[in-house]
Amino acid sequence: MNESLSAGNGVLVVDDEPDLLTLYELTLLREGLEVETAASVAEAWALLQQRVFRLVITDMRLPDGFGMTLLHRLEEQNRSEKVIVITAYGSAENAVEALKAGAFDYMTKPVDLKQFRGVVAAAMGRVVPQPAVAAPGAVAPPVSAAPLAKLVGRSDAMLQVRNLIEKVARSMAPVLVEGESGTGKELVARAIHEVSARAGQPFIAVNCGAIPENLLESEFFGYKKGAFTGAHEDRSGFFQAANGGTLFLDEIGELPLAMQSKLLRVVQERAVRPIGAVNELPLNVRIVSATHKDLTAEVAASRFRQDLYYRLNVIRIPVPPLRERLDDLDSISSALLDRITRDAGVSPVPRLSAGARRLLAAYSFPGNVRELENLLHRALAMSSSELIEAADLGLPDTLFQDSAGDADTAAAEPVALETRAAELAVAALLPAPRVPGVPPPLPDDLALYLDEVERGILVRALQQHNFNRTAAGARMGLSLRQMRYRMARLGITEAAQDAGADEAL
User: For the segment 361-416, what is each residue's pLDDT rounded down to a tens digit?
Assistant: First the structure.
């Protein structure tokens, strides 16, 4: 072994084909890297036991095992080496398995050397030529916490999101960010980019639902001069603009099926062919997608390609809605007010009164953080002092119904529920009256049965107390917050009150 190799510049290449091993070694040496080679899992592991490498490039199938074995061992020992897997068996399943196991990236044989150099450069942190060369053995500077600090909140849900971002940032694995509209999916995508080694490279955000269908291909892939009427010059697409960096595909579920198949080819081949071009251009782009839709349901309904879904959903990051992390409400509000006042040049930063905080805590925020930001923009404009009062928020009184004056709202989309219909539904689900000596029948769906029973009881209690949630809850030993939660979950709204009144006529 060459003792002069530095950990920060060393690459270990593992392949059992001598010709390919030599080709990879010569390519890497020309890039100024120092290389060691191995032809089996055992030989590679012996070298890894002796020193630390910056990068491991391994074939998937080796004489004494699989390249995945090396990857798993490195992960188990929490080693710092990045791993690139090369395989002739380039199915989507192999690629997804490698990336989910922690591989930085994967390539399929026959390997395009230009693409090979690009992926290695990204893994080595050489996406952009550096003006100064680090000293041998120098460690990369710690990742900045600033991008993650933009994701405000200390709730368990947000801590999990931040942890996932830190883990996925070190690889090239495609990421799917899921969450309702307004939850901050683009903020998560930007954090992934800014925490990764691509932070200094382009971040291109694309709203897939905002581009006319007839322009999708030219916008995504670009075109050559003369490719169609009006193409007076060459133009790059989103993929070329994001080369070396990250392409964020927001609302990916809105893409039509024809465009999905074209996107799949680009993701698989890591190359793009502009409209009117003959040759493909190799790409070095990390793809982060986002959607508010349930893509598994879209796949089942044949509205989204299953193979593309598996390619994009290697790592999934769910972003919780605001109503599920109300513990973060005060800190999010403060951060938003700081930014709004800074942008507006207002000083000092106003504060929310206790009444305003209570009102916001009782609201369900169907528009999530985006809606909260809009409310605070309005409140800042309407407030005449440094203290924002509840009235400044401009939330309609119809959303808040309890007689005690506490803020209240249904935390789900209104669903009309007629009392008689609820009673009939409960009656249909209840087991038949017990016959002596015969055990009562069991419900076919226990969860639905219990929900219908609870819904019927809550509606009756609310009617007895003129839909005063505080009084109805107290009658059953429930707090106002518990009543709000149960009513939202079961879809009980003011329509139930109106239905009850109609029946009484």
Answer: 988 888 899 999 999 988 888 877 888 988 888 887 655 544 334 434 333 333 33
Instruction: List helix spans (H) across 56-202.
Output: 67-76, 92-100, 113-123, 146-149, 156-168, 185-195
361 neighbors 329 (Cβ within 8 angstroms) = yes
Any idea which of 55-69, 326-340, 391-405, 447-461 has the lowest mean pLDDT? Answer: 391-405
Residue 463 in tokens = 């009617």
Q: Cα–Cα–Cα angle for 186, 190, 193, nearest 5°?
A: 140
Q: What are the tokens at 14? A: 């593992």
Report the alpha-carbon angle 257-259-263, nearest 5.
115
- Count helices and strands (H / E) in the chain: 21, 16
SS3 at position 275: strand
Is beta strand 246-250 parallel, antiparallel or unpaired with respect to 271-272? unpaired
121: left (phi over 0), alpha (psi -120 to 50) or beta: alpha
* Angstrom distance (rounded) from CA 9 to CA 292: 42
Residues 6+ apart with CB under 8 A from 307: 92, 264
* pLDDT, mean of residues 130-136: 33
Contact of 333 with 291, CB cutoff 8 Å: no
Q: How far apart are CA 327 and CA 307, in angstroms?
A: 39
Give CB contacts under 8 A, 24+ apart, made by 409-412: 409/362, 409/363, 409/364, 409/484, 410/364, 410/484, 410/487, 410/488, 410/492, 410/493, 411/323, 411/364, 411/484, 411/485, 411/488, 412/364, 412/488, 412/489, 412/491
CA neighbor of 197 nearest in space, from 120, 143, 248: 143
Alpha helices, H only, 281-367 = 295-300, 306-312, 329-344, 354-362
Give the tokens for residue 91.
């199915």
**Residues 427 and 503: beta-carbon distance below 8 Å:** no
Structure tokens at 394: 């401009």
Helix (H), strand (E) at residue 105:
strand 105-108
Q: Which two tokens stand for residue 201?
A: 């490279």
Per residue in 425-439, pLDDT tens?
Answer: 445 445 555 555 556
Closest by CA position to 481, among listed 404, 386, 396? 404
Length of the chain: 505
Query: Could you tell me the pTM of the whole model?
Result: 0.63
Distance CA 387, CA 336 (A): 15
Distance CA 441, CA 431 (A): 6
How many CA atoms does the CB half-sphere of 85 hold within 13 Å? 31
Helix (H, G, I), strand (E, B) or coil at 177: strand
